[in-house]
Design goal:
single chain, about 280 residues, alpha/beta, Rossmann fold, seven-stranded mixed beta sheet, three-stranded mixed beta sheet
């Protein structure tokens, strides 16, 4: 019997599906932008919660390539890669991995590493490198472990018109720490986390309702209602023109762990992702 790895971050089958989706679209994205010549565009890959570049499966501890590693070995390659992680050990492991494998399609000199809070470094150092007027375009993965992302990042990406995003909407973290049936039991720090992710406190209007209740009691809304309201925010507040219905990622007990969103300014990108989402939607269930 294989000994389970304990030194790697563990992921479930739902995360493997997510990684497959992102790799498949990344391949199409890189191929399309690499072939464009009028004008010639420089396309960039950004991973805001990169990790060490590989994981272990929860069941067996088998090695699974992470999103940075999969992106690096896409051919044609991206022109630049930006990997960010708050954990120094993870980003240093990823750095060593990249520079020890120099036979891939990517240029090692095009890979940049940041041991930093993505909520700061994206706004100050990374997103400014992908300006529309500079003929640059970017695919950005925003895959936080929980409510660790700030709305300002999402809104800034939408305003730039040059960035497409995959986004983890961590409904399990929300339900566990914020969206309690009894609001009085929610810690103020958790409310602040939720408002930073959502962008303001309008989530409260979505999360709780007294309508449809014979006695006028306040009731908690559904996961689907929260996800749909956030989809509308991505369109109307962040300014993304196209936001397909997200894929709900479920654990072995069929509970939704998170929703995977995609947002773009391009109809062709939305069409490609909708087709990919539909292919993997049954697997996610």
């Amino acid at each position: 019997m294989r000994k389970k790895r304990t030194d790697l971050s563990e992921i479930g089958p739902w995360s493997e599906i997510k990684l497959d989706i992102i790799r498949e679209y990344g391949a199409a994205y890189s191929s399309i932008l690499s072939s464009q010549t009028k004008p010639r565009l420089k396309h960039v890959y950004i991973d805001a919660f990169s990790g060490a570049g590989f994981h272990a499966t929860k069941d067996e501890g088998s090695l699974v390539l992470g999103s940075p590693t999969r992106a690096l070995f896409l051919d044609p390659p991206f022109k630049e890669y930006h990997f960010i992680d708050l954990d120094k050990g993870s980003i240093e492991t990823l750095r060593e991995l990249v520079h020890s494998h120099t036979t891939g399609p990517y240029d090692p000199n095009s890979v940049h590493f940041y041991n930093a809070d993505c909520n700061r470094i994206l706004l100050t150092d990374v997103l400014p490198r992908v300006k529309y007027e500079d003929y640059r375009r970017g695919l950005c993965l925003l895959d936080p472990y929980g409510l660790d992302l700030e709305w300002q990042v999402i809104e800034s990406a939408g305003a730039m018109q040059s960035i497409e995003i995959f986004l983890n909407f961590p409904i399990a973290d929300m339900n566990r720490n914020v969206l309690r049936r009894d609001r009085s039991k929610v810690e103020p720090s958790q409310i602040q986390r939720m408002s930073r992710y959502w962008g303001d406190d309008s989530w409260k209007e979505v999360a709780y309702s007294r309508e449809g209740n014979l006695f006028g009691w306040e009731e908690k809304t559904t996961n689907e209602a929260m996800a749909d309201a956030f989809r509308q925010r991505l369109r109307k507040k962040a300014g993304f023109a196209y936001v397909p219905d997200p894929v709900p990622m479920r654990n072995s007990k069929k509970a939704i762990v998170y929703y995977l969103f995609f947002a773009s300014q391009k109809p062709v990108a939305s069409k490609i992702v909708r087709e990919i989402f539909e292919k993997y939607r049954k697997r996610a269930v």
